[in-house]
Amino acid sequence: MSLDDWFILSSTLFFLFITAVYLILFFENRGQALSDPAPKRFPLVSVVIPAFNEEDTIAGTIRSVLALDYPKKIEVLVVDDGSTDRTAVLAKQFKGVLVFSKPNGGKGSALNHGIRKAKGELVATVDADSFVRPDALRQMMGYFADERVGAVSSSILVHEPRNILQGIQFVEYIGMNYIRKNNDFLDSLFVTPGPLSVFRKSALIKVGLFDEHALSEDMEVALKLLTNGYRIKHSVNALVSSVSPHSFWELFKQRIRWYRGALMNGRKYAFLFFNPAYRNLGLFVFPINFIIFGILAVLLTRGAVITLGGIPLAWDKLVHLLALKGTSQASYVGSLLNPIYFATIGNFFLVVSLAFFIAYFSVSFSLSREKFRWVYVPFLVLYLTVWNILIGLAFFVGLFRELGGVSRKW
Amino acid sequence: MVRSVFAKAFALTLVIFLLGVFVSNYFAEQRASFFLFELSKVGSSLNDAKTTLLYFETLKDTPDFCRNFPFFVAKFADRVDALGNDLTRLEEVDAGSLELVELKKNYTLLNAQLWLYLVNLRRQCPEAAFDTVLYFYSNLAGPQGCVDCQKQGAELTALRASRPNLYVFAFEANLGLDFLDVLKKQYRVSALPALVVNERKTLQGYRSGQEIEAALSQAV
């Protein structure tokens, strides 16, 4: 076998192993996976909404927060981070909503501004382009009975997907919710997503609030909590829908920011890599995320080389086929289609990987309470193929920008 | 609990890996057996034809023999072509296997026997009007490889489709067969691709269809 064959084989086995870990983990914990613990008390919650030029969605976000079904009063704080549109004006139209305006300083600084003003024992952060379901907050409360819990994350869905890109993101987000629940089982949930997360305010203060320079502040704060001994839980029933990028360029920029942010955090928390003191987080969850990106980046390069090299080969085959006549052509087609030539080790792993992929998404859909519809199949196919090329490419660009020291914007 | 999850996942991955190796080895053997079987069928037919020719050579009492030869030859050529297609597919899916090298040697020797049979036939039946081209190529990369072989192969395929009486015998030049070494020495083959037209003229390097046609008309 060539070096390339070994790389493909080991990458496939690596992905199969990870998928197997998560599938087994889920099935062994499925009792806990589908339900959240019942809350014993309902402390005061402050909802902080950081906003920068969100005039299209801010009203809907505030409306969804005010409609939350929560037994106690909720404090709602909107932090306008130097918007140049009507975000602040629209937010001020809601009674009982505190609106703070500050010069633009980034999402982390807006969140910190709001948290400092918040009176609640718990702080919920909600992105200004996200819409929480009425029972979301209630579903998350039960986890805070455990004093070690510093934060609880929610299940995110794409808000009203309207085009192919949003359709692919829809299935991607559903898969992410499943990964988050499994990382919760491993005590290694290292992202508290922006659309909706609830924090114990004392924990946030203890770890020094959000990093105002981080590009992925939601990942950074989660890592800070975990490395300070706090636990982060995931509620599968706390649903929030978030507006996702609708154009390719917007999406590409978002992913570059995510991956660059992840790389920054990888550098900042490099001590976690294969560190047994941090158990599953250090030995498994944190490293595999970076290894996966590395493999995807190499696979992207390899895929491009094979595709470019394969085009003339495929063309030659076609020319050869068309040049043949009569029985020669029939025998050539016969050998091309003979099933015995498809039973290779590569195709075996392709079929197994596909089976794992189907299992992964079946569980993900059931966990997100989303009924599977056949219309999702093309999105799943695109997610499995084209999507990974985009991800690999965005990772490459993020990596080069980070290594090249290009200025960071969020 | 978590440790057991990792252990189970590892065991599952290992089982899948071993199953993959087993299944692919099984089918690789099936492919080789299938190819050998096809090879032996053509080999038997060739032996049959050679025996008939020997009979004709020896007793000369079958006047219809030379009249019927095109039918026999065309039948063989198609079957050897089909074997060549299967060999190409084998090379694509089982590249690098030792068994494949042996299969290629067997195929090459069968091809060589068919060529020799045709040469012999032409001697016995002077009215037989057909051409032969021996095509030396290589699939290897690096200095022993051949940059233009794929192009040359495509050119020969097109030529063969337009000339029903042309028989092309393709030989992988680096198989380490004594017979091929003798042939290369005899026809002074030193560069690839190389073509030997009607056992008379050697062309080295890539040649267009027109150049080959011209060589065929000269080397009658």
Automatic annotation (TrEMBL), chain A:
All copies of domain Glycosyltransferase 2-like, residue ranges: 46-207
GO molecular function: glycosyltransferase activity
Keyword Secreted (UniProt): no
Lineage: Archaea, Candidatus Iainarchaeota, Candidatus Iainarchaeia, Candidatus Iainarchaeales, Candidatus Iainarchaeaceae
A Pfam family per the record: Glycos_transf_2
Keyword terms: Glycosyltransferase, Membrane, Transferase, Transmembrane, Transmembrane helix
Keyword Transferase attached: yes
TM helices/strands, residue ranges: 6-27, 281-300, 340-363, 375-400
Stated name of the protein: Glycosyltransferase family 2 protein
Automatic annotation (TrEMBL), chain B:
UniProt keyword list: Membrane, Transmembrane, Transmembrane helix
InterPro entries: Thioredoxin-like_sf
Record field: transmembrane: 6-28
Name under which the protein is recorded: Thioredoxin family protein
Organism encoding this protein: Candidatus Iainarchaeum sp
